[in-house]
Design brief:
nine-stranded mixed beta sheet, binds coenzyme A, Aminopeptidase, about 20% helix, alpha+beta, single chain, about 170 residues
Length: about 170
Amino acid sequence: MNTPCLPEAATPADEPAIETLLDQAFGLSRRTKTSYRLREGNTAAEGLSMVVREPGLGIVGTISYWPLRIGADGTKALLLGPIAIHPERQNRGIGMALMRTTLAKAAEQGHALIVLVGDAPYYARVGFMKVPDGQLLLPGPVDPKRLLFLELRAGALSAAKGLVLPENRYHAA
Ligand SMILES: CC(C)(COP(=O)(O)OP(=O)(O)OC[C@H]1O[C@@H](n2cnc3c(N)ncnc32)[C@H](O)[C@@H]1OP(=O)(O)O)[C@@H](O)C(=O)NCCC(=O)NCCS
């Protein structure tokens, strides 16, 4: 049976089901990842947290984005993730639908740059590329092959150099 795949806005009431889905998809150690350092104390980007629901199973897909500041100039970017699909509903296009819908919304909102830590072959399908070695420094270890970016405004990566922080940790010099 094909899952109807219509991304909808996530609501605060969805939070427990989203956390359960993330534990299922990534395991309980997920919170030790460097990406989580960029979400701690941060607030998810407005209008970009979306879910896919299925009768009987509840939430089968989730995605969210987090505001970042990069380098001394505080260049703005968004962190994509986590994205996770219910183990019984993977490989049916839900992940792609969630990414395409939210990336289009992020572009409409005027966001210029998205970064993420993840599997390059998957995210390349929507245009993500590897960040040049040494351009971005994350607050924890990251395999450089998995540090990826997507420009929603041409040339946006060139302004982004240095330490990547969650928006709430950045203070202009
Ligand atoms: C990774 C994930 C988000 C993909 O979502 P999905 O809805 O299952 O994937 P889609 O249906 O949109 O896309 C499926 C295609 O992507 C490919 N794909 C899926 N995960 C991939 C990965 N980690 N690396 C490379 N390709 C991948 C599939 O092989 C499939 O290819 P095909 O179209 O040629 O058959 C989802 O499977 C998931 O939550 N996995 C568990 C968590 C995880 O591993 N996350 C790591 C992501 S960095």
